[in-house]
Amino acid sequence: MSIPANLQYTSEHEWIRVEGSVAVVGITQYAADALGDIVYVDLPKAGTTISAGSIVGEAESTKSVGELFAPVSGDIVEANQAVIDSPELVNSDPYGAGWLFSVNFSSIGDVMSADDYEAMIAE
Amino acid sequence: MTLTQSPLDAIHRERGASFTDFAGWDMPVRYTSDLAEHHAVRTSAGIFDLSHMAEIYLTGPGAAAALDYALAGTLSSIPLGRAKYSLILSEAGTVVDDVIVYRLGEEKFLVVANAGNRFPAAAAIRDRAESFVCVVEDRSEEVALIAVQGPNALAILEATQGFSAEGLAELGYYRCLPREFNGESVLVGRTGYTGEDGFELYIDNAHAADLWRALEAAGAEFDLLACGLACRDTLRLEAGMPLYGHELSLDLKPVQVGMEKVVDMSKDNFVGRDGVMAGVSANAPRLVGLQSEGKRAGRADYPVHANGRTIGVVTSGALSPTLGFPIAFALIEPDFAELGTTVTVDVRGTEIPAVVVPLPFYSRKARS
């Protein structure tokens, strides 16, 4: 199970990569595996203001629906069009090409380190 | 709660399967990708562990008559080596379970019930068989079930080491034949729950793992993939096959779900006859197939709307892996059940238009 050490994680199985004032957000491999093959994603549009902890989208697999929670507060910079067109990228490359959206953030919600996230999902 | 382990559990763990609690059994939900597994069954072949299914045997001179009384159909009239889909009805004429019945001998039948209904199904059959000369045996925990489904299924069985596949090429759909694997008895049914050609193999637990491994070894050159219950659900949905607890329940009569032909009203006496005779109210919901555009699928329990109000509910739904658009079963008011009627499915607050379409959604005969 891949959990890159350079990312931060939420208890909702999302990851964030902070690049200056922008946070790139995705879901973890653990979450993608648990959902199964993802066939549809609903992502917040560019310009939308989101607040940490609120539901901002969905990832649907053939079997179930996972809600996407905002891990940060701020304005959406970009939703990943490649994932909208090819949702399977979330399964095949959750930390790379399968990123979901980026946010020009004002604050970060509750996050944890890779080690803490690993411990959480091991429970 | 401790989950029951399949006799094939060690194999699934070796292959890194994800598991789900299915009616108290710890069963593989997928091995790697439920879409890949789904497509394998449509285009090559898939192998499934269905050992959670319930196997109930009736043996004795009164077995055929007992089943005629216990079930909705006339099982006494099916010849040796035939299988038949049937229903166990309640006194009220609603559905206790849907089953496959195999005639194994003049006086011997196998009833295969859903895992989740094992106890009510076995109890109903036992109670109803009481005044007939026959023995009812629930062997669910001793019998394993392996399904090989898909266009390559026959070739795989014929290539399996130690498996006597003679006669399987000629075996018709819904027929069964006793065969052997390394000298052990295997009941082979040309049955399935996927909408593809395929076989279901019933074998005692002790020999199930060896059979699975032999099938997998033979299947390697036929693109056989181990398949979990996730793709079984999307396969059966595409094939328009109901799932108990979704499209069938104790609240529904056969006529509501298009199964009136499964009930043989020419029989004088069977459990549920009076209830079926009483019919349903004019407004009782009917089962329909719904098809939508786009990628967002309705799922079980999502409301169905028309004319600004709720007229029914989705019972099963998914983005069809084979067809590429959303499909669903729904129970809706009869006024909206006509083919071609447009309704909407409330997909978590978004109204997605859906059209009532004929079932099944997918038929292998429709493809050349």
From TrEMBL, chain A:
Gene3D superfamilies: 2.40.50.100
Coiled coil: none
Keywords from the named record: Lipoyl
Alphabetized PROSITE patterns for the sequence: BIOTINYL_LIPOYL, LIPOYL
Pfam families: GCV_H
Lipoyl-binding domain ranges (all copies): 22-104
SUPFAM superfamilies (UniProt xref): Single hybrid motif
Zinc in keyword set: no
Entry annotated with the keyword Cytoplasm: no
Family named by the database record: Belongs to the GcvH family.
Name of the protein in its database record: Unannotated protein
Source organism: freshwater metagenome
Source organism phylogeny: unclassified sequences, metagenomes, ecological metagenomes
Automatic annotation (TrEMBL), chain B:
One Pfam family linked to the record: GCV_T_C
Occurrences of domain Aminomethyltransferase C-terminal (ranges): 286-362
GCVT N-terminal domain mapped to chain residues: 10-267
GO terms for MF: aminomethyltransferase activity; transaminase activity
Keywords, comma-separated and alphabetical: Aminotransferase, Transferase
Enzyme Commission (EC) number: 2.1.2.10
Enzyme class of the recorded protein, top EC level: transferase
GO cellular component: cytosol; glycine cleavage complex
GO biological process, one term: glycine catabolic process
Catalyzed reaction equations: N(6)-[(R)-S(8)-aminomethyldihydrolipoyl]-L-lysyl-[protein] + (6S)-5,6,7,8-tetrahydrofolate = N(6)-[(R)-dihydrolipoyl]-L-lysyl-[protein] + (6R)-5,10-methylene-5,6,7,8-tetrahydrofolate + NH4(+)
Family assignment from sequence similarity: Belongs to the GcvT family.
Full protein name: aminomethyltransferase
Provenance organism: freshwater metagenome
